[in-house]
Design a protein that fits this description.
Number of strands: 8
Number of helices: 0
Structural class: mainly beta
Helix content: under 10%
Number of domains: 1
Largest sheet: 4 strands, antiparallel
Oligomer: single chain
Strand content: over 45%
Length: about 120
Amino acid sequence: MTQIAGSPTLLSPYDGHQGAAEIALHPNGRFLYASNRGSSNSITAFRVGRDGLPTQTGRVSSGGSIPRDIGFDPSGRFLIAANQGTGELVTFRVDPATGALSQRGPAVAVPAPADFLFAPVRHAH
C-alpha cells in the first residue's frame, strides 16, 4: 500500500481534543466517512473523486459521545454510529446523491458499544 494523500477530519485550527476512530467507505465507493472522538464527537463525510482522492463535504454530530465504530447496513442506505460514551447506536440516512448524513429515528440504548456487525436472520420453520 502506498499513501497517495491525506485529509484532515476536523477543520484547522481545531482547539478541542482530537481522536479519530473509524473510517468507512460506502459500498458504492463514492463516499467516505470518519468518526471523530474527543471533544468533536462527530462524523466527517468525504466525496471520493475519480482520482480516488477524498474531498471533505460536511460533518454532523454523532448523536452521542465517543463514536468508536461506524458502518453501513447491508443496503448501504444507512450509516450507524456506535457511541461508546453515551451507550447508544445512532442511525443516519445516507443521501444517495450527495452522501450527506441525516439522523433517523431515536437512538438505541446499548451499553458502551465499541463495534457492531450485521448478521443474517434465520427464521424458524
